[in-house]
Design brief:
This protein is an alpha/beta fold. It is 18% helix and 33% strand. The strands form ten sheets. It has an eight-stranded parallel beta sheet with strand order 28-27-26-25-24-33-30-29. The protein has a four-stranded antiparallel beta sheet with strand order 1-7-4-5, with no helix packed on it. Strand 17 and strand 18 form a beta hairpin. Helix 1 runs parallel beside helix 2 and helix 6 runs parallel beside helix 7. This is Glycoside hydrolase family 2. InterPro entries: Beta-gal/glucu_dom_sf, Galactose-bd-like_sf, GH, GH2_Domain-Containing, Glyco_hydro_2_cat, Glyco_hydro_2_N, Ig-like_fold. GO terms for molecular function: hydrolase activity, hydrolyzing O-glycosyl compounds.
């Protein structure tokens, strides 16, 4: 695929450096500006940027030409994380969806000073009442003094100096904790001290700073802990809150991976809260940053999956992807782990993410213990799910099973809590809102809304029992799914997000009653 666009730089940006940002391009992109190659990027789920300042034209009325060439092998190349995207959908096979190729997130220009901030990592430590902060900057900003201010509703909570590129701590006295019911966010200001200005700035005041950015953070702890009965549980801020969520594929009928608007991104999260759930499992896809911002501010816990790789051959592409005996080559492993590391790195500061899910149902699974340990080293502040469903390995923080029309729980161990990573899949055809009426699929279908609600309520009753039983001590359950996706008709809402399959108020009563019961354990 090839993209071409002309643009001009606003005159007000003349004295600054100009960056060209790509939200995500699937899968391999080569970017050219005014005929010069800027670079090659591989990975369909990560953000990347180029400093284009030295390549900009000053003649021809300042018209710039950007060209992007994209190669996307989808399932035909080994070691390419693709999630559920496929070039070919085999008839009624409903759990795979049409592929997204090329630019699928926003592309934008940004003017920045010579010495500028690239990223700010913020990791809360609730026990020590502090925030660990790292300000990443441009090469010539490394080691410079910076200021870091935390405020709550306009009132200063902390103001500390730091150094760009060095991790430092920020005390947060009497922290207000982030919970789904009260997602408290702190405002953050970060700036680079400019000592060359006529009136030098300082780490106490951003006025005259070389660069100044605003952000937010939250004080939130996710860990394992014992409930009143001594059962190992998933804890949020040292409190057991049953994580009641849904599988969220993140597909849209008009844009596949790309939501139509920012409001649409927020809508799926608002819908989840509306029906009384407190978690979404973002399934083998990584969303734009705005999606996680909405989860942060609205109060929704997120399990973030690493998009799985298939590595299938053209002749056996379907079976090969799920084979337990697949051979994963060294190049495929290196590529998968590079994209995994980038996913973790680029999402460290979102408080809503409480768990990383490394593998799903054996899809491209290999050397689970080693890969899980590497994620724990990258981010010791969060829980790690080694493999959701199918092939368990003695690693990570949870033991996860999948069971659909029935529900069950694994037994927790001394070191891992029990979770039901996928269940449900109940369906009911809603005429006029089917992606493909010929192949509409669910694990079990019902004729009426009354029948499917009764069946769903029965599943929740069984999950409540598994949660309360100290032998199973189930800590979380993920229903399949939030919205119908292509041929699947097992969503709480239809693919076009227009019709609820269940009455939302009924679901709210069912879910909140169960979550409240968990607080007594």
């Amino acid at each position: 695929m090839w993209y071409r666009r002309e643009f001009t730089i606003p005159p007000a940006w003349a004295s600054q450096r100009i960056y060209l940002h790509f939200g995500a391009v699937d899968w391999e992109s080569t970017v050219y500006l005014n005929g010069r190659e800027l670079g090659v990027h591989k990975g369909g789920y990560s953000t990347f940027s180029y400093d284009i300042t030295e390549v900009l034209r000053t003649s021809s009325h300042g018209v710039q030409e950007v060209v992007v060439g994209v190669f996307d092998p989808t399932e035909l190349a080994d070691g390419v994380p693709v999630g559920k995207q496929r070039e070919r959908i085999p008839g009624d096979q409903s759990i795979l969806y049409h592929a997204t190729s090329g630019i699928w997130r926003t592309v934008w220009l940004e003017p920045v000073p010579d010495q500028h901030i690239r990223r700010v990592d913020m990791i809360p430590d609730v026990d020590k009442k502090l925030l660990s902060a790292t300000v990443h900057g441009s090469a010539d900003a490394e080691g410079l003094e910076c200021g870091f201010r935390v405020a709550d509703a306009g009132k200063e909570v902390a103001l500390v100096p730091g150094r760009v590129g060095k991790t430092f701590t920020v005390p947060i006295p009497e922290p207000k904790l982030w919970f789904p019911d009260s997602p408290h966010l702190y405002d953050v200001d970060v700036w680079i001290v400019n000592k060359k200005a006529a009136e030098a700035s300082s780490a106490k005041d951003p006025a005259g700073a070389a660069d100044h950015v605003k952000s937010y953070t939250a004080m939130r702890k996710t860990a394992l802990g014992k409930d009143r009965n001594g059962s190992l549980r998933l804890m949020l801020n040292d409190v057991f809150i049953f994580q009641m969520g849904m599988l969220d594929q993140g597909f849209w009928p008009d844009g596949l991976y790309t939501a139509p608007t920012d409001a649409a991104l927020a809508y799926d999260i608002q819908l989840t809260k509306q029906i009384g759930m407190n978690m979404l499992r973002k399934h083998v896809k990584v969303e734009p940053d705005r999606w996680y911002y909405h989860a942060d501010r609205l109060g929704l816990m997120v399990w973030q999956d690493m998009p799985s790789m298939c590595g299938a051959r053209a002749d056996t592409w379907y079976l090969d992807c799920w084979s337990a005996n697949r051979t994963i080559g060294a190049a495929a492993k290196a590529n998968f782990e590079a994209e995994l590391a980038t996913m973790v790195e680029q999402h460290l500061s979102f408080p809503s993410i409480v768990m990383w899910v490394v593998f799903n149902e054996g899809w491209g699974q290999y050397e689970t213990e080693r890969v899980v340990h590497s994620v724990k080293r990258m981010d010791p502040s969060r829980l790690v799910n080694p493999a959701s469903g199918w092939y368990d390995a003695p690693a990570g923080d949870v033991i996860d099973v999948h069971d659909y029309v029935q529900v069950r729980s694994p037994r927790p161990t001394w070191t891992r809590a029990a979770v039901l990573g996928e269940y449900g899949g109940l369906g009911h055809k809603i005429k006029g809102h089917l992606f493909n009426p010929k192949y509409a699929f669910a694990y079990k279908t019902f004729d009426t809304r009354e029948q499917i609600l009764a069946a769903y309520s029965g599943l929740i009753d069984n999950i409540t029992t598994l949660m309360a039983n100290p032998d199973t001590a189930l800590s979380a359950a993920v229903y399949t799914e939030l919205a119908d996706t292509e041929n699947e008709i097992n969503g709480v809402i239809t693919y076009d997000r227009k019709v609820f399959r269940y009455e939302p108020s009924a679901l709210y009563r069912i879910h909140t009653r169960m979550i409240e019961a968990g607080k007594l354990l």
